[in-house]
Amino acid sequence: MAQMAEKFLLSKLSRAGFVALIAIATLCAVMGEPMVAAAAAAASGVVIAGKAYHQNRINQPWPRVQQAFFVVLLLILLASFWTGPWILSHWLYGLPLVAFALIPPAAATLVTVVIAVLAIIASHWAVGLADRHQMISAFLLTILLSALLVFLRDYKARQLAPLRRTDELTQAASREYLFADLHKEIQRSEREGTDMSIIMIGLDTHLSDDEPDEDIRSILPRIGRYLHSQIRDFDTYYRVADLQFLAILPGISTGDAIVRAETIRKGLANLLESHGMNLTVSTGIAGLNIGDDANSLQQSAANALRRAQQQGGNRSQAYSSWSQPAQPSQPQAQGPVS
């Protein structure tokens, strides 16, 4: 909820800023201030090409477009030192923060140093400007404060990195943590002598190629919420691919995992059908065996899911069902479910 509120507020502020900058550009153009109008127009381009303005702006070519607008804004500010050193002085104060937000730190540092040196030189030659020393002092102080804010932002990002475990779209744990978590669970299961299974869950998109990608992505948050409702407090689930999830089930045998996988598969099928989507779901189950590690166990589940989908999808398949004889006490590992 906090992430959604943050995105909503940033989007609103971004749109309001874009409208304000366009208004400034128009007004300055009418009043005969071409440099200010051009700077405001370039800044509005930086805003409208940003991911805060629209979530799709995170994909190419938008980041490149945003950087291009920033370069145009930078060139306009550099040109202002020749046309008059303080025509765009108020734009300089926000330049370091914008630079560190849009371009790599090394390039942003270079841009900030160059602008600071040029501002000092320009103020030295502007002998007719009475308060030029106060202006340059304020600009240098702003650079120091900007550097402090950038340092605090990076420090906070490093401190919070271990806590950012969830995929924003589905609220499932990110795949970057899967290997380490699965390794820990395997070690715990071997140490305590308990069962452990994993379930790979995938949407059978090959069965409905006419389904638009946008519609499929729109249902992913609901899929994530459903999976969260189906696992225990000490189970974990991960988004391992665009349309695939993996659940780790400590203390669950392969046979019990097959039953749970079928429950999840049927529930997801009903969810998709209730939203008018012609999609089915398949699951692949793998139980922990002697000699398994995180890679081999995950690969077993992936192979089981692949086999289920190759057989037409809309079914659950246990890896052990074709690699070794099935145990009499275990239910059937595969079979289409209507």
Index terms:
2 domains, 10% strand, 338 residues, six-stranded mixed beta sheet, 12 helices, disordered N terminus, elongated, Alpha-Beta Plaits, alpha/beta, 60% helix
Q: What do these coordinates show?
A:
The protein has 338 residues and is an alpha/beta fold. The chain has two domains: 2-163; 173-323, Reverse transcriptase/Diguanylate cyclase domain (Alpha-Beta Plaits, 2-Layer Sandwich), CATH 3.30.70. Helices cover 60% and strands 10% of the residues. The protein has twelve helices and six strands. Helix 11 links the parallel strand 5 (281-287) and strand 6 (316-318). It starts with a helix and ends in a 15-residue tail after the last helix.
Shape: elongated
Label the structural class. Answer: alpha/beta
Tell me the strand percentage band: 5-15%
Order of strands, main sheet, comes to 1-3-4-2-5-6
Mind sketching the topology for me?
Blueprint: H1 2-30, H2 34-48, H3 62-83, H4 89-92, H5 95-102, H6 105-125, H7 132-160, E1 173-174, H8 178-192, E2 196-203, H9 213-230, E3 236-241, E4 244-250, H10 254-274, E5 281-287, H11 294-310, E6 316-318, H12 320-323
Parallel strand pairs: 1-3, 5-6
Antiparallel strand pairs: 2-4, 2-5, 3-4
